[in-house]
Write a structure and sequence with these properties.
It contains 2 helices and 4 strands; from the N terminus they run E-H-E-E-E-H. The protein has 98 residues and is of the alpha+beta class.
Length: 98
């Protein structure tokens, strides 16, 4: 869970929203980059809890049981993905007949 940012403005907005963000920079900026902390990626089978920012709750990385349904499998540049997501969300909410 998180986002990749290519601009400093997007980076600030995501950071202040508490969303994990990775700032993608061109290799020419390498000499000016300050690394505050080196972290290792979470392994697939770690099932760790990550603390949420400004909250006492945690985000669990454990696999869902039963597994979540696949909503979209094609490329991220195709607009049809939004229709697939909307269809999935509508399937979660069933309103009573009036």
């Amino acid at each position: 869970m998180g986002a990749f940012a290519y601009s400093a403005d997007d980076l600030q907005r995501l950071f202040h929203a508490g969303i994990p963000v990775w700032y993608i920079r061109d290799v020419t900026y390498l000499p000016t980059i300050r690394v505050d902390k080196l972290v290792h990626p979470v392994t697939e089978n770690a099932n760790q809890l990550l603390p949420m920012r400004h909250s006492d709750q945690n985000v669990t990385l454990a696999d869902a049981n039963p597994p979540h349904r696949m909503v979209w499998t094609s490329g991220w540049t195709q607009g049809e993905r939004y229709a697939a997501m909307a269809h999935y969300i509508r399937s979660l909410h069933q309103y009573p007949a009036m």
